[in-house]
Amino acid sequence: MGNDSKSSWADLRLTDAIEPGVRVLLVGINPGVLSAQTGHHFAGPTNRFWGLLYEAGIVPEPITHEDDVRLPEWGIGMTNLVARPTTGIDTLNPIEYQEGWKILEKKIERFRPEIVAFVGVTMYRALWRVLEQTALGPPKPTG
Question: pTM score, two decimals?
Protein backbone atom coordinates (compact mmCIF):
# COMPACT_ATOMS: atom_id res chain seq x y z
CA MET A 1 0.00 0.00 0.00
CA GLY A 2 1.20 3.47 -0.82
CA ASN A 3 1.44 6.48 1.46
CA ASP A 4 -1.97 7.68 0.29
CA SER A 5 -3.77 4.53 1.43
CA LYS A 6 -6.28 5.09 4.20
CA SER A 7 -4.46 2.68 6.50
CA SER A 8 -1.40 4.95 6.46
CA TRP A 9 -3.27 7.92 8.04
CA ALA A 10 -6.65 6.82 9.41
CA ASP A 11 -5.37 6.13 12.92
CA LEU A 12 -3.05 9.14 13.14
CA ARG A 13 -3.90 11.99 15.53
CA LEU A 14 -2.54 15.51 15.73
CA THR A 15 -1.08 16.81 18.95
CA ASP A 16 -2.86 19.83 20.39
CA ALA A 17 -0.75 22.97 20.59
CA ILE A 18 -2.10 24.20 23.95
CA GLU A 19 -0.13 25.27 27.00
CA PRO A 20 -1.11 26.83 30.32
CA GLY A 21 -1.65 30.57 29.96
CA VAL A 22 -3.21 30.29 26.51
CA ARG A 23 -5.24 33.42 25.69
CA VAL A 24 -6.80 32.33 22.40
CA LEU A 25 -7.82 28.78 21.56
CA LEU A 26 -8.33 28.09 17.85
CA VAL A 27 -10.60 25.13 17.12
CA GLY A 28 -10.72 23.40 13.74
CA ILE A 29 -13.24 20.75 12.72
CA ASN A 30 -10.83 17.86 12.21
CA PRO A 31 -7.47 17.22 10.58
CA GLY A 32 -7.16 16.60 6.87
CA VAL A 33 -5.10 13.73 5.54
CA LEU A 34 -1.97 15.82 4.88
CA SER A 35 -2.16 17.29 8.38
CA ALA A 36 -2.41 13.80 9.85
CA GLN A 37 0.54 12.61 7.76
CA THR A 38 2.78 15.60 8.53
CA GLY A 39 1.70 16.08 12.14
CA HIS A 40 0.92 19.76 11.55
CA HIS A 41 -2.38 21.64 11.62
CA PHE A 42 -3.76 23.13 8.36
CA ALA A 43 -0.97 21.56 6.27
CA GLY A 44 -2.78 21.52 2.92
CA PRO A 45 -0.82 23.36 0.20
CA THR A 46 -3.82 25.50 -0.75
CA ASN A 47 -4.89 26.25 2.82
CA ARG A 48 -4.79 29.99 3.44
CA PHE A 49 -5.04 29.73 7.24
CA TRP A 50 -1.43 30.54 8.11
CA GLY A 51 -1.19 33.55 5.79
CA LEU A 52 -4.47 34.92 7.10
CA LEU A 53 -3.32 34.47 10.69
CA TYR A 54 -0.40 36.78 9.95
CA GLU A 55 -2.38 39.23 7.78
CA ALA A 56 -4.94 39.60 10.58
CA GLY A 57 -2.17 40.52 13.03
CA ILE A 58 -2.77 37.48 15.22
CA VAL A 59 0.86 36.34 14.89
CA PRO A 60 3.75 38.82 14.56
CA GLU A 61 5.53 37.13 11.63
CA PRO A 62 4.65 35.00 8.62
CA ILE A 63 4.51 31.32 9.57
CA THR A 64 3.54 28.02 7.97
CA HIS A 65 1.98 24.81 9.20
CA GLU A 66 5.43 23.65 10.32
CA ASP A 67 5.41 26.49 12.86
CA ASP A 68 2.19 25.39 14.57
CA VAL A 69 4.26 24.31 17.59
CA ARG A 70 5.24 27.97 18.04
CA LEU A 71 1.69 29.20 18.60
CA PRO A 72 1.96 28.98 22.41
CA GLU A 73 4.80 31.57 22.22
CA TRP A 74 2.09 34.08 21.31
CA GLY A 75 -0.54 32.82 23.77
CA ILE A 76 -2.37 30.88 21.07
CA GLY A 77 -3.51 27.27 21.31
CA MET A 78 -4.84 24.97 18.62
CA THR A 79 -7.02 21.89 18.73
CA ASN A 80 -9.69 20.13 16.69
CA LEU A 81 -13.26 19.30 17.59
CA VAL A 82 -12.90 15.80 16.12
CA ALA A 83 -9.51 14.11 16.30
CA ARG A 84 -10.10 11.67 13.43
CA PRO A 85 -8.53 12.76 10.14
CA THR A 86 -10.67 12.58 7.00
CA THR A 87 -10.52 13.56 3.36
CA GLY A 88 -13.52 15.84 4.03
CA ILE A 89 -16.02 16.59 6.77
CA ASP A 90 -18.81 14.75 5.00
CA THR A 91 -17.72 11.48 6.61
CA LEU A 92 -17.97 12.84 10.17
CA ASN A 93 -21.13 11.90 12.00
CA PRO A 94 -23.16 13.87 14.57
CA ILE A 95 -21.99 11.68 17.45
CA GLU A 96 -18.37 12.60 16.70
CA TYR A 97 -19.26 16.29 16.92
CA GLN A 98 -21.15 15.75 20.18
CA GLU A 99 -18.32 13.75 21.74
CA GLY A 100 -15.81 16.31 20.46
CA TRP A 101 -17.83 19.12 22.03
CA LYS A 102 -17.64 17.40 25.44
CA ILE A 103 -13.87 16.97 25.11
CA LEU A 104 -13.51 20.60 24.00
CA GLU A 105 -15.44 21.78 27.06
CA LYS A 106 -12.92 19.94 29.27
CA LYS A 107 -9.99 21.57 27.45
CA ILE A 108 -11.59 24.99 27.88
CA GLU A 109 -12.20 24.32 31.57
CA ARG A 110 -8.61 23.17 32.05
CA PHE A 111 -6.82 25.95 30.12
CA ARG A 112 -9.34 28.80 30.61
CA PRO A 113 -8.57 30.75 27.41
CA GLU A 114 -10.01 34.27 27.15
CA ILE A 115 -11.20 33.55 23.61
CA VAL A 116 -12.30 30.34 21.89
CA ALA A 117 -12.40 30.84 18.12
CA PHE A 118 -13.97 28.30 15.78
CA VAL A 119 -11.96 28.31 12.57
CA GLY A 120 -14.07 28.80 9.47
CA VAL A 121 -17.71 29.24 8.62
CA THR A 122 -17.94 25.53 7.76
CA MET A 123 -17.06 24.74 11.36
CA TYR A 124 -19.70 27.11 12.65
CA ARG A 125 -22.42 25.69 10.39
CA ALA A 126 -21.57 22.07 11.14
CA LEU A 127 -21.39 22.61 14.88
CA TRP A 128 -24.56 24.70 15.02
CA ARG A 129 -26.55 22.05 13.13
CA VAL A 130 -25.37 19.24 15.41
CA LEU A 131 -25.84 21.18 18.66
CA GLU A 132 -29.37 22.19 17.68
CA GLN A 133 -30.26 18.50 17.65
CA THR A 134 -28.88 17.76 21.13
CA ALA A 135 -29.65 18.61 24.70
CA LEU A 136 -26.51 20.79 24.63
CA GLY A 137 -28.30 23.31 22.44
CA PRO A 138 -26.59 25.82 20.17
CA PRO A 139 -23.94 28.20 21.56
CA LYS A 140 -25.47 31.11 23.45
CA PRO A 141 -24.61 34.64 22.26
CA THR A 142 -22.66 36.72 24.76
CA GLY A 143 -22.82 40.39 25.48
Answer: 0.81
Q: Is 47 labeled as catalytic in the residue annotation?
A: no
Catalytic residue among 40, 41, 65, 80: 41
* Catalytic residue flag (residue 30): yes
Identified catalytic residue from 30, 40, 65, 80: 30
- Give, in order, the Cα–Cα distances in Å from 100 to each of 21, 119, 127: 22, 15, 10
pLDDT single digits (tens) 66-123: 999 999 999 999 999 999 999 888 888 888 988 998 999 999 999 999 999 999 777 7
